[in-house]
C-alpha cells in the first residue's frame, strides 16, 4: 500500500503534495487526515483544477496572462493589456476560455472593425492570440484581419520647424521641442535631468510612462537600441544649463502647447513624435548612413526608416520627373 507523506505546517494545518504529469498538486487540511482521506483528496484534485480552469473566462485568463508578465513588460504595455478586455464585447470576454472557437474570434474582430482602425484591431487580435496561446497552446488561430491602410505620415517641413521654434522661444517648451528634433521620444525627454548632460552629450537611459494605475513612472528605455548617447549643439547645451533643467511640466502639456501654437500659426497639426520623423527625414537628406540614423534615433528596426525614406524618395522622384520633362520638352518642342 502506498503511503502519502503528510506534512504539518507552522500554521497547524496539514499538507500533502504530489507531482503528476509535470504538475505539482497540493491539498491542505485543517486537521490531520488519514491515509485514506489523503489518497481520496489527492485523487480528486486534478479534476477539480481542470474544472476550475475550464470555467475560466477570457477576462480572467487575460488578467492572469498579464500578471505573469507584469515585471518583464513595460508599465505602459501592462496598462494597455489590462485595458483591452474592457474594450471587447461582453459576450466574448465572459465566455469560458475553453469554449472560445475560431468563429468567436472572427466575429469579435468583425465587430471591432466597424469602429476601430486596422492597426488597433491587429494589436487587440495579437493580445487575444497570446492569451489563448498561453491557456490553449494547441489551438490553431487563423483570423482574417482588416486590410492595412497605407498611411502617408505628415512630416513637418523645415519652415514648419523654424516657425514653431520661433513661437516657442523663451517658453518652458522650447527645449523639449528642440530635443524632439534630435529624434528623442516624449517619454525620453520627460525623463531627462541636468545630470544626463555631459558637455554637449546627452545620455538617454530611461523613459517616463503611465503605469496601470495612471501614475507617471520612470522605466528603462523602450528598447535596448533606445539606450544611447546623442550629441546636441553647444547652443542647446548652454540653454539647458542656463535653465538648470530640461523639462519639469506634465508630458501632455507639450502636445497641448504645440497644438495651440500650430493654431496661432495656421499650420498643420502634428504631434511631438512627428519631429522624430522629421529628424530621420532630414538626416536622410544629408545622406547620413541609415545605420547611423537608426542608432541616433534609438530605432531597433528600420520600419520607420522605410516609411520616411518612401516619403523622401517621393519628393526626389517629383524633382526628377520635372527635370526629365523639362529636358524632353526642349527636344520635342
Automatic annotation (TrEMBL):
<dbReference type="Pfam" id="PF14659">
    <property type="entry name" value="Phage_int_SAM_3"/>
</dbReference>
<keyword id="KW-0238">DNA-binding</keyword>
<dbReference type="GO" id="GO:0003677">
    <property type="term" value="F:DNA binding"/>
</dbReference>
<dbReference type="InterPro" id="IPR002104">
    <property type="entry name" value="Integrase_catalytic"/>
</dbReference>
<dbReference type="InterPro" id="IPR004107">
    <property type="entry name" value="Integrase_SAM-like_N"/>
</dbReference>
<protein>
    <submittedName>
        <fullName>Site-specific integrase</fullName>
    </submittedName>
</protein>
<dbReference type="Pfam" id="PF00589">
    <property type="entry name" value="Phage_integrase"/>
</dbReference>
<keyword id="KW-0233">DNA recombination</keyword>
<dbReference type="InterPro" id="IPR050090">
    <property type="entry name" value="Tyrosine_recombinase_XerCD"/>
</dbReference>
<dbReference type="InterPro" id="IPR013762">
    <property type="entry name" value="Integrase-like_cat_sf"/>
</dbReference>
<comment type="similarity">
    <text>Belongs to the 'phage' integrase family.</text>
</comment>
<dbReference type="InterPro" id="IPR011010">
    <property type="entry name" value="DNA_brk_join_enz"/>
</dbReference>
<comment type="function">
    <text>Site-specific tyrosine recombinase, which acts by catalyzing the cutting and rejoining of the recombining DNA molecules.</text>
</comment>
<dbReference type="GO" id="GO:0006310">
    <property type="term" value="P:DNA recombination"/>
</dbReference>
<feature type="domain" description="Tyr recombinase">
    <location>
        <begin position="151"/>
        <end position="322"/>
    </location>
</feature>
<dbReference type="InterPro" id="IPR010998">
    <property type="entry name" value="Integrase_recombinase_N"/>
</dbReference>
<dbReference type="GO" id="GO:0015074">
    <property type="term" value="P:DNA integration"/>
</dbReference>
<dbReference type="InterPro" id="IPR044068">
    <property type="entry name" value="CB"/>
</dbReference>
<feature type="domain" description="Core-binding (CB)">
    <location>
        <begin position="56"/>
        <end position="136"/>
    </location>
</feature>
<keyword id="KW-0229">DNA integration</keyword>
Amino acid at each position: 500500500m502506498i503511503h502519502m507523506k503528510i506534512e504539518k505546517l507552522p500554521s497547524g494545518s496539514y499538507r500533502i503534495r504530489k507531482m503528476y504529469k509535470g504538475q505539482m498538486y497540493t491539498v491542505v487540511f485543517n486537521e490531520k487526515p488519514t491515509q485514506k482521506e489523503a489518497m481520496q483528496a489527492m485523487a480528486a484534485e486534478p479534476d477539480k483544477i481542470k474544472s476550475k480552469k475550464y470555467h475560466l473566462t477570457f477576462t480572467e485568463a487575460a488578467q492572469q496572462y498579464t500578471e505573469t508578465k507584469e515585471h518583464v513588460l513595460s508599465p505602459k504595455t501592462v496598462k494597455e493589456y489590462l485595458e483591452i478586455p474592457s474594450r471587447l464585447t461582453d459576450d466574448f470576454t465572459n465566455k469560458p476560455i475553453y469554449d472560445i472557437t475560431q468563429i468567436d474570434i472572427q466575429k469579435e474582430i468583425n465587430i471591432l472593425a466597424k469602429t476601430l482602425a486596422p492597426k488597433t484591431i491587429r494589436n487587440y487580435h495579437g493580445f487575444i492570440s497570446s492569451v489563448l496561446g498561453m491557456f490553449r497552446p494547441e489551438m490553431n488561430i487563423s483570423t482574417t484581419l482588416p486590410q492595412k491602410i497605407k498611411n502617408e505620415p505628415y512630416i513637418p517641413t523645415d519652415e514648419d520647424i523654424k516657425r514653431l521654434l520661433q513661437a516657442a522661444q523663451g517658453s518652458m517648451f522650447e527645449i523639449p521641442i528642440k530635443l524632439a528634433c534630435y529624434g528623442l521620444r516624449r517619454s525620453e525627454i520627460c525623463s531627462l535631468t541636468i545630470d544626463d548632460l555631459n558637455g554637449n552629450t546627452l545620455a538617454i537611459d530611461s523613459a517616463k510612462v503611465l503605469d496601470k494605475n495612471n501614475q507617471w513612472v520612470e522605466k528603462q528605455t523602450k528598447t535596448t537600441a533606445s539606450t544611447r548617447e546623442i550629441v546636441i549643439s553647444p547652443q542647446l547645451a548652454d540653454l539647458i544649463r542656463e535653465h538648470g533643467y530640461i523639462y519639469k511640466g506634465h508630458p501632455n502639456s507639450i502636445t497641448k502647447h504645440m497644438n495651440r501654437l500650430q493654431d496661432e500659426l495656421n499650420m498643420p497639426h502634428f504631434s511631438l513624435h512627428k519631429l522624430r520623423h522629421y529628424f530621420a527625414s532630414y538626416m536622410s537628406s544629408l545622406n547620413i548612413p541609415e545605420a547611423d540614423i537608426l542608432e541616433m534615433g534609438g530605432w531597433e528596426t528600420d520600419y520607420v526608416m522605410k516609411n520616411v525614406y518612401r516619403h523622401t524618395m517621393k519628393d526626389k522622384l517629383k524633382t526628377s520627373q520635372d527635370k526629365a520633362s523639362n529636358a524632353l520638352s526642349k527636344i520635342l518642342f
